[in-house]
Amino acid sequence: MSEENRTNAPEEELTQEDINSLKKIRMDKLEELKAKGKNPFEITKYDVTASCAEAKAQYEKLEAELKEQAGEDEEKLKELLEANRITVSVAGRVMSRRLMGKASFFDLRDKSDKVQVYLRMNEIGKEEFDDYKKGDIGDIVGIEGFVFRTKMGEISIHAQKFVLLSKSLLPLPEKWHGLKDQDTRYRQRYTDLICNPEVKDTFIKRSQIISSIRRYLDGQGFMEVETPMLVSNAGGAAARPFETHYNALDEDVKLRISLELYLKRLIVGGLERVYEIGRVFRNEGVDARHNPEFTLMELYQAYTDYYGMMDLTENMFRHVAQEVCGTTCVPYGDVMIDLGKPFERMTMIDAVKKYSGVDFSQVATTEEAKALADEHHIEYEARHKRGDILNLFFEEYVEEHLIQPTFIMDHPIEISPLTKKKPENPDYVERFELFITGREMCNAYSELNDPIDQRERFAAQEEALKQGDEEANHTDEDFLRALEIGMPPTGGIGYGIDRLVMLLTNSPAIRDVLLFPTMKSLDGVNKKNDVNNTASETPEKM
């Protein structure tokens, strides 16, 4: 089998021996180029004057203008196009080739688009054409030439100069076409981006979403800040932290699980509207909605409450969808999510009553709650109290039904250690979570600013920690000191940026919107397979 044919064969048919053989062929070609003084890896730059998309757009514009001059005269149009040629220098990766004796077509792709290139030996010279013929799919090349439209109607570039800028030593895996082999795509995102243009579109949109959020918040008077990632006390959320050691200080530290406690310190300091977009780290499971490191945005605004956070959230989601997607109705799976309508607002008790038939407003004690859990076959732990059981009912009966945007308000105090109590009912707090497509999209509070109450909440968390709750918070004395200095009434919220990107790009799994998601090492996978003597499979839940 020739190199050209083997490169185009489905990768499933190639053994490791085949791949090594192809690499050897390409290495030999590289050595031949070096011997001729044409080592592509010695090239340090190439002057690009247009992207593939720009080259095609420039030609379309010129063609439209000249058609007005030529009218119905096709010969005159041809003469005008030849007299007003657009010359460009483009660079990108060779994605396919069609050799035809002393001429060839190939597809060149850069970050913007793909363009067809036409080469003739008589135009670029026999030596350069011979070098081109010995090239491979995956090579990175530079082309200088003029833009034209072929007889088949495709805008292309007629090459006048050709240069190999980087030699591809491994063939591109054909099996990625059609979005196959997700495990390998996630591990080798660089090849995924080459073979699947729609993947690149997802990450371009991710960047646009984050930029849109920043513009919206900046326009609302918020200030972007940065806070520490390595902390002595990882608080602000219910999650297990990663732990490491700080050699210079000889101290154990943790990677942050939240942005909350430092941002609230800034509210105390008088920075009345602050936000941060950054990575947080939670030592938890991996599945379609969770990655151990993910992007979180938290914001805090003085002199407002969780109702203010609801209004801000609804307006921001609507703004970002319109700006990035061009509409407030976005597809997700087989449903349309309408971000243009007012978001539904429902208390947790009302939601549980609606979908399970159980009215927790009539449940007075933890014993009654546990009896109901037993009756409905809901598992709980001995340490759980009435509010915890209510939350378990919500997770079991309600979440899956919350497809259109819905604010779930007024959570039980047991699961909300940093939230202000409802004055008329201190068993509940001024908190909401936004659910879309059955997933939590954000979590917001009227922030607790009473240092006495906060110390009592931390004490309850310490007790839960002793009883085996590994996600409970430790007491943060410096944060309590900040509250004792005085924090104004404040609304705060945390957004999972990855889940928002999933929604607006119609992506089913969080790994689809992370350039480099967490994966079990291949050594670990192979060891597991050796022990189990089973076929290779994706090690994490999807």
Amino- and carboxy-terminal Cα gap: 38 Å
| Structural class computed from helices and strand pairing | alpha+beta
User: In oligomeric terms, what are we looking at?
Assistant: single chain
Q: Quote the beta fraction.
A: 15-25%
Number of H- or I-type helical stretches: 18
Global Rg: 30 Å
β-strand number: 20
Calculate the mean pLDDT score and round it. Answer: 91
Order of strands in the sheet with most strands: 6-10-11-20-19-18-15-14
Biggest sheet layout: 8 strands, mixed
Overview in brief:
The protein has 542 residues and is α+β, with helices and mostly antiparallel strands. The chain has 18 helices and 20 strands.
Report on this model:
With 542 residues, this protein is α+β, with helices and mostly antiparallel strands. Helix content is 38%, strand content 23%. The protein contains 18 helices and 20 strands. Strands 6-10-11-20-19-18-15-14 form an eight-stranded mixed sheet, with helices on both faces. It starts with a helix and ends in a 10-residue tail after the last helix. The model is unreliable at 5-11 and 529-542 (pLDDT under 50).
Which short descriptors sum up this protein?
5-stranded mixed barrel, disordered C terminus, 542 residues, elongated, 8-stranded mixed beta sheet, alpha+beta
